[in-house]
Design goal:
Helix content is 48%, strand content 0%. By secondary structure, it is mostly helical. Helix 4 runs parallel beside helix 7.
């Protein structure tokens, strides 16, 4: 018998079957609403991307802990926002899309948190997904710059989520099986993953590895298989053209929220509402954010969208990086 959601949230084991479905369904409908969820002393600082405000507030927390910066960093590390309990770096990644005119303000905050405040980068949301995993999943993000920042700070490229999957499970689950452009985008993300020490042989909770997913797609598109062959040949020959790093030990931890269905030939189909929820929920956040800002002056550096352009649609589907 499957456990109720409350028990799943409190657990840390790998989910599969009905329990995985239950968690996916929750994560596909729950999302962070900035108006509702960013009301605490840190949360209110995200919208304008003001690094100085973040620095000043963090220093006030250091003073609260009598000069012990480590405790202030751990306090921020443990703060989670919204119903899926998103950690600080994932919120910053989301805001680079919600408010793209301030992208490098958010990048600067992330860099400061990594380099100076020393806030750990391996925080997870309710599903166990880290900022690194989100930034290369290409659903809806493929942000190599943010991913590199997380990786350089120690994020585990092979970290497992609540489904037992790793980032490459999301990358290689190409929903549009006959869409060559979608496969090419996934190929770029997969190459980044492999060149940074990612492995293809970790199985998720249902016993499916990334290598198996890629093999199942060969009949419709060989792009991903070509990426794997090329990178593995380079690595075996000692001519890795990527970062040259090696994989870190796999951490058996937990994300889940936003994963698409596995390739149709090798797994069960999930309800349509579970497909690509990252994209839909980001769109909802964007709409709420911009409707709130419509009647007040824009923050310095904010770039307005051209008339008639829906940022949500720009980020999703056809115009994803």
């Amino acid at each position: 018998m499957s456990r109720p959601l409350g028990q799943l949230f409190a657990s840390s084991d790998i989910l599969s079957g009905e329990e995985a479905m239950k968690m996916r369904n929750y994560c596909s409908t729950a999302y962070m609403d900035p108006d509702r969820d960013l009301k605490d002393s840190y949360g209110i600082l995200f919208e304008d991307g003001n690094l100085t405000a973040f620095q000043e507030h963090f220093q006030s927390r250091v003073q609260h802990f009598e000069g012990r910066q480590y405790e202030a960093a751990q306090e921020l590390f443990k703060v989670k926002w919204g119903p899926t309990r998103i950690p600080v770096y994932v919120v910053l990644l989301a805001f680079t899309s919600i408010n793209p005119g301030l992208r490098y303000y958010y990048i600067a905050i992330a860099e400061w948190l990594v380099d100076t405040a020393k806030v750990p980068v391996d925080g997870t949301d309710i599903s166990g997904t880290t900022a690194l995993m989100h930034s290369i999943s290409q659903k809806p993000y493929f942000d190599p710059e943010f991913a590199q920042l997380m990786f350089d700070a120690g994020a585990d490229i092979n970290r497992r989520d609540r489904f037992g999957g790793i980032a490459a499970h999301d990358i290689t689950t190409v929903q549009l099986l006959y869409d060559h452009v979608a496969h090419e985008k996934a190929g770029r993300a997969l190459q980044w993953f492999l060149e940074h020490g990612g492995t293809l042989d970790i199985e998720d909770g249902d016993g499916i590895s990334v290598r198996r997913i890629i093999a199942s797609l060969e009949g419709t598109d060989r792009t991903l298989k070509g990426v794997v062959d090329r990178v593995e040949q380079q690595q075996s020959g000692g001519s890795n053209t990527g970062s040259g790093v090696t994989a870190r030990p796999t951490a058996r931890n937990s994300p889940c929220p936003w994963q698409e269905e596995r390739a149709l030939s090798i797994t069960k189909q999930f309800p349509r509402e579970c497909h690509d929820p990252d994209a839909r929920l980001t769109n909802l956040m964007i709409r709420k954010f911009h409707s709130r800002k419509r009647n007040r002056p824009a923050s310095p550096g904010t770039s307005a969208l051209p008339k008639g352009v829906d940022l949500g649609q720009m980020l999703l589907g056809k115009t994803r990086k």
